[in-house]
Amino acid sequence: MELNITQRADVLTQALPYIKKYYNKVVVVKYGGNAMIHDELKDAVMGDIVLLSLIGIKVVLVHGGGPEITEMLSRVGKKTEFVDGLRVTDKESVEIVQMVLAGKINKNLVNLIQNKGGKAIGLCGIDGHMIRAEKLDERLGFVGEITDIDVTPILDVLEKGYIPVISTVGYDTDGNTYNINADTAAARIAGQLGAESLISMTDIEGILRDKNDPSTLISKINVSDAPQLMRDGIISGGMIPKVNCSIEAIRRGVKKVFIIDGRIPHAILIETLTDEGIGTMFLSGNSYDD
Length: 290
Known about the structure:
This protein has 290 residues and is α/β, with parallel strands linked by helices. Helices cover 41% and strands 21% of the residues.
């Protein structure tokens, strides 16, 4: 339904406390899933990020790109294998990962942000030796475990008024390149920056008490209760590593972590600038609310 002028003014007025709360604070957005694939959703996400930047929020965009990596590997005749949910990445594959993430995807996102009226600079974890890594598991090849984060390049870009767009490719001092899980990298980067919040975009509504019933969304979880929810099977499967990254971010100093449904247009704005919010919020404490 079309909003009239008064309703539009009310929406803006309701956003004011949130604008004041987040003004000049760092918000890290982990961007992935369907929101990266569908043009309409991608357009909405980039528009949201530009709007947040223009009202004085320091947005850092960390992105993945699994489907496009799989597509490119397929083009060159390489079959994708996974172990424990992680892509096996040999020497040839990691070069393709770097090309797709730090090249095609990263620069396309930078261009889209700028076409929306924002200012963006593309970075990868090799730039400024931002993400140092070592092999996570010999079975996985060049999949990296983060050993150190240097956020100096990110801070420099933010200081100049640009939105950093970061692809999660890591390095080591022997000249190797590593494929880094984007959720893990976003959590570490957010912690190192002392971010006000980390927003993780996924393809589900959030944490559901009953996975088949969206009305059972748990809107708030304190990190001390997450292990019990895992034992009860409420947090399970592919959501476990995302929740573990959320816990890691909180323990490293991020005030709040949101897992939101990236399939909803303008999900970032709804979560950041409205009373309603969507998805599941993680914070430090000792209880959770339905």
